[in-house]
Amino acid sequence: MHAIKSSTAAVTLDDMKRLMESVIDLRTAIGRDIIHGRMNGDDTDVIVENILGDVAVLLVSNWAHNFFPEAFIQRSLGEPQFADDDDSAMQEAYLNEGF
């Protein structure tokens, strides 16, 4: 891991607007977490952990990467979330639900 050059950053109004847009962008990821959990018979706590993981990485870490790129990873919303996302039944389930 690289050393962090600074532990502070200035946040602008535009930064906050982008953060709010990023919250809305999580809709697909969270929808897929729920569908994936239903398809696999996951307990509610597993689904919640998957949602929280997506919020941590796809929202917080991605946003923080803008300010501290050496300390936070960035992941695309388009990347598969689960190992079986390419499965035809899973893809059909996502499409049928609008995700």
Helices and strands in order:
Layout: H1 13-40, H2 44-65, H3 88-96
Helix pairs in contact: 1-2
Observed structural traits:
99 residues, mainly alpha
Write a structural description.
With 99 residues, the protein is mostly helical. It has one domain (13-97). It contains 3 helices and no strands. Helix 1 packs antiparallel against helix 2 (44-65). The mean pLDDT is 91.
Label the overall shape.
elongated
What's the end-to-end separation, in Å? 35 Å
**Structural class computed from helices and strand pairing:** mainly alpha
The DSSP helix count reads 3
Q: So what's the oligomer here?
A: single chain
Question: What's the order of the H and E elements?
Answer: HHH
Instruction: Kindly estimate the percentage of residues that lie in beta strands according to DSSP.
Output: under 5%
Please tell me the total number of domains: 1
> What is the overall pLDDT average?
91
Helix content: 55-70%
Low-confidence stretches: none
Could you describe the largest sheet, including whether it forms a barrel?
none
Could you tell me the radius of gyration in angstroms? Answer: 16 Å
Number of DSSP strands?
Answer: 0
